[in-house]
Amino acid sequence: MDMVQISPSILSADFGDLKGEISKLEEGNADYIHLDVMDGIYVPNITFGPPVIEKIRNITDIPFDVHLMIDRPERYIEDFVDAGADIITIHEEATIHLHRTIEEIKSHGLKVGVALNPATPLDNIEYILDDIDMVLIMTVNPGFGGQHFIPSMANKIRTMRRIIDDRGLDILIEADGGIKLDNAREIIDCGLDIIVVGSGIFESDDIAERTEMFRAL
Ligand code: DX5
Ligand code: ZN
To answer: Are 140 and 175 in contact (CB under 8 A)?
Structure first.
């Protein structure tokens, strides 16, 4: 497997100085910027939406990995496309029209990911694996930064890896939540392609250096 890619979540960044924070991620060679969109319905927290993402798009060329934690994401796909998303990830649990929404995202020429909450079985995405570019395994319950990695998710990642390899699929596996310097190696070795890191980066006094440290793992 190639080197793991890093997708820093700006959820834990200083929003009063987003430009400064993002320039540090550029300095640290972040592969993506992970944007956590929350609607207060699908998850018990509210963050930001398309207008904010559109403004951030003007200050960096790093690809945007947009994680939609919103109910019925099909209502807003076009807005996130127009805002400058490169990958749009929707939750399996958030829509009853998963396949249709995947196709809509792809019709705009974007990459598409599907996220699974910790309690959601991998079986739920069996029939759409041929249609997606990425699986996002939530390793905490979505809604907040700074939570602890749920240990049983290590096996979920391993099983996902095995399914992808057995079926010969070209799908990336991303994990999101509770990934820190001291557990990242172990989690990556379960078979990840991309790690999302929020507090594990932004709690550092040197965000650029910390980003590089994760990449170097
Ligand atoms: C949680 C978000 C995560 C979060 C990760 O709902 O999807 O992206 O920002 O933050 P840490 O790395 O602090 O767990
Ligand atoms: Zn996320």
So the answer is: no
